Amino acid sequence: MNLRKKISFLSFILLPITLNYFAPVLIVQGSFERTFTIMHIIYGLMFLIAILFGGIWCSYICPFGALQELIPDTTRLKRKLPNLKWLTGGIFLALICAPLIVKGFQETSLFYHMVDTKVSVSSFRDLVRYYMITIPIILITLVLGKRTWCRYICPMYIFNYLGIKIGSFLKLPSFKIAYKSEKCTHCKSCTKSCLMGLDVEEMVKNNKWDMNECIKCGECINACKNKVLNMEFHNR
Ligand code: SF4
Ligand code: SF4
Q1: Is the pLDDT of residue 79 over 70?
Q2: Which of 2, 78, 80, 171 might form a disulfide with 236, Cβ 3.0–4.6 angstroms?
Q3: What does pLDDT average to over the chain?
Q4: Are residues 83 and 112 in the same domain?
Q5: What domain range is 15 assigned to?
Q6: Ligand 2 residue neighbourhood (C-beta within 6 Å)
C-alpha cells in the first residue's frame, strides 16, 4: 500500500472522531449562527492547499474519498452522469458566505457541537448520523462506480476549484502531473487506473491536462510502465 492510501485510509478510520470537522451541514449552521468554528478553518485549509497542490485534498486527506476506494469497483455503468457538483458547491458556498457577508462572525466555538468530547460520534444518535452520511456514499459508489460522489456530487469540491483557479490566476507554482508524450505507447493502463475516470491517455496525447478534475492521486503514474508520467512542482 502506497503512502497516499495509508494516509487516506487513516483519515477514514478516524472518521468517527472527525466527522463533524468536515460536516457541510455544520459549517452552514455555524455561519448562520455567526459562529466561527473549526470547520471554517478546515475548509479554508482545503482552499489554501488547492492553490499549491491542486486537488490533493481529495486523494490524500478526505475520508469520504478513502471510503469510496475501499469499495470494489464492480459496476459496468460507464456512462457519464450530469455533473451536479457545480450546483451543490454553488449552493453550499452561498450558504456559508452569505450570512457572513451580511453580518460577520459574532462568536467563536471551535468545537461546535462537540464542546464536551471533541469527538464527533459520542452517542447513539451520532452513530445513526454517521451511517446516514456514509451509507448513501457507499450505495452510490456500488451502483454508479468508483468515486462517483467526488466526480459528480461533492459540494466540497468548490473549495478545490476556487483554489486551483486562484493559484492559476496568480501564476503561483504548483504540483502538476508532467508527461513525456513521445514515450507513450497508448496502452491505456493510465486511463484504466484513474480514480476520477479521466481519459489520461487522451490527455497525454492531446497535451491537455484536466487540472480541475485531476486529484493528483498518482495512480496513473504507478500504472504507466513506460514512465511517461511524473509528479513535479512547476512554475506556471
Ligand atoms: S500508461 Fe503510459 S504508456 Fe500507457 S497510455 Fe498511459 S501514459 Fe501512455
Ligand atoms: S489523472 Fe492520474 S493523478 Fe489525476 S486523478 Fe487520474 S489517476 Fe489520479
Answers
A1: no
A2: 171
A3: 91
A4: yes
A5: 3-166
A6: 177, 193-196, 198, 200, 214-220
Q: Are residues 189 and 220 in the same domain?
A: yes
pTM, to two decimals: 0.88
Does 9 share its domain with 108? Answer: yes
The reported pLDDT for the residue numbered 139 is 92
CATH number at residue 181: 3.30.70.20
Pair (197, 142) in one structural domain:
no
Spacing, Cα 19 to ligand 2 middle (Å): 26
User: Same domain, yes or no, for 52 and 122?
Assistant: yes
Tell me: do 57 and 119 sit in the same domain.
yes
Count of alpha carbons within 13 angstroms of residue 71, beta-carbon side:
24
Residues 158, 218: one domain?
no
Q: Kindly report the protein residue whose alpha carbon is nearest to atom 5 of ligand 2.
A: 214
How many domains are there within the chain? Answer: 2
Q: Are residues 125 and 205 part of one domain? A: no
CA R_g for the chain: 19
Each residue's pLDDT tens digit, 212-230: 999 999 999 999 999 999 9
Segment 126-150, tens digit of pLDDT: 899 899 999 999 999 988 888 999 9
Q: What pLDDT shows up at residue 220? A: 97
- Name the percent of the chain lying above pLDDT 70: 96
